Amino acid sequence: MNSPNEPLPTFDEVLLCTPQTTAEQVELFLRRCLIPCSGGEKIYTMLYADELSYDVSCRAEELFQHLQHYNSTYRLVILCNCEREHSYIPSVFSQYKVHMIPQRPLAEIQGYLQHHYSVAQPSSSAASVFKDNMCVGIVSSKRAGVGK
């Protein structure tokens, strides 16, 4: 948010982890992050890395230890659920842990996201179904099983 006109991360910069994430997916992601190339100064982010299976987490740590020697200027952020801080990945990287609380007001964060996710020409876009011609939206319910 410090650079409002910079683009949001692209698909190759973010890995959304689930228990079904494979070691191959993590390996490809870490190789993009840790092997130097002329792709610029991207910030790579693993979301919910605490959900990786034990085997995948072990392989990810081994690969990280091996590849980090090739690039001393990598930029990697690993986000985990604080309720699962004792799972493998948060434990391995605990020396780098930073507890983070958003430092900006909610309205400012929403404005920033609206700037990046609004569609300029909504007439031929599915974005017309979302509020303010946004190309993304969150649908939630307090009741389970209502088809959302």
TrEMBL record:
Alphabetized InterPro entries for the sequence: RNF213
Gene Ontology CC terms, in alphabetical order: cytosol; membrane; nucleolus
Annotated GO MF terms: ATP hydrolysis activity; ubiquitin-protein transferase activity
Signal sequence residues: none
Top-rank taxon: Eukaryota
Biological process according to GO: negative regulation of non-canonical Wnt signaling pathway; sprouting angiogenesis; ubiquitin-dependent protein catabolic process
Protein's UniProt name: RN213 ligase
